[in-house]
């Protein structure tokens, strides 16, 4: 990779070249800096921080103030990576609110914003982009709506109606001007179809190998949130146990 700053146009170009986009979540200065040093081109201050950092049961409890706080922390690392942030639940109910909320995250250091939904939020997406703010979509399973799903995370697009809804949502985001879209728990064949059909970069999570890129919650990848690991994640490290072992060893050294 070039040492130059990653931009939205660079992500578009990766899609055009067929180059896979690796993306991870970052919630603070040291993690952002470490992931950036590892060469990850796309970092997201995800509202997943509500669960893995703040101890909430789901993302619906995350506030705008909390997203701003963590975005500022991540931005202080001044990453070469493109750094974005999630618009939290109920922060983009109208186009006007969506723009105001997006501007708050941009002021905190985000370089793009992400929100959940497709056709249903197209007016908000159009308004955000018209305000000069790059936008990443998120369709498939929508964590901010997990309570409406009975608290269960379900694969989307398994039937004809679900497939049609996903294709329509992806088309709406393309029409509005989004530069990329997260596909969460989308049936792999549908994710592959969306990736082939549309010009924006598809970033999969639990949606099979055929997306333009993949994103994970970093804590799931490195094993620092061992109390729950999604079925589609294969942790690359058991950092939680290594941390416990190091702390026990230190404790023993001072308590002998």
Set out the fold topology.
Blueprint: H1 8-17, E1 21-25, H2 29-37, E2 42-45, H3 49-52, H4 64-75, E3 82-86, H5 95-108, E4 112-114, H6 122-130, E5 135-140, H7 160-176, E6 180-184, H8 188-197, E7 201-205, E8 213-216, H9 218-222, H10 239-255
Parallel strand pairs: 1-2, 1-8, 2-3, 3-4, 4-5, 5-6, 6-7, 7-8
Q: Helical proportion?
A: 40-55%
Number of strands: 8
Low-confidence blocks of residues:
none
Quote the average pLDDT.
96
Instruction: Report the biggest beta sheet as strand number plus sense, adding barrel if it closes.
Output: 8 strands, parallel, barrel
Count of alpha/pi helices = 10
Shape: globular
Radius of gyration over all CA atoms, rounded = 18 Å
Strand order in the largest sheet? 1-2-3-4-5-6-7-8
Q: In terms of structural class, how would the helical and strand content be classed?
A: alpha/beta
Gap between N and C termini? 50 Å
Characterization of this structure:
This protein is an alpha/beta fold and 256 residues long. Helix content is 42%, strand content 14%. It contains ten helices and eight strands. It has helices at 8-17, 29-37, 49-52, 64-75, 95-108, 122-130, 160-176, 188-197, 218-222, 239-255; strands at residues 21-25, 42-45, 82-86, 112-114, 135-140, 180-184, 201-205, 213-216. The chain has an eight-stranded parallel beta barrel with strand order 1-2-3-4-5-6-7-8, surrounded by seven helices. β4, α6 and β5 form a beta-alpha-beta unit. α4 runs parallel beside α5 and α5 packs across α6. The longest helix is centred in the middle third of the chain and has 17 residues, at 160-176. It starts with 7 loop residues before the first helix and ends with a helix.
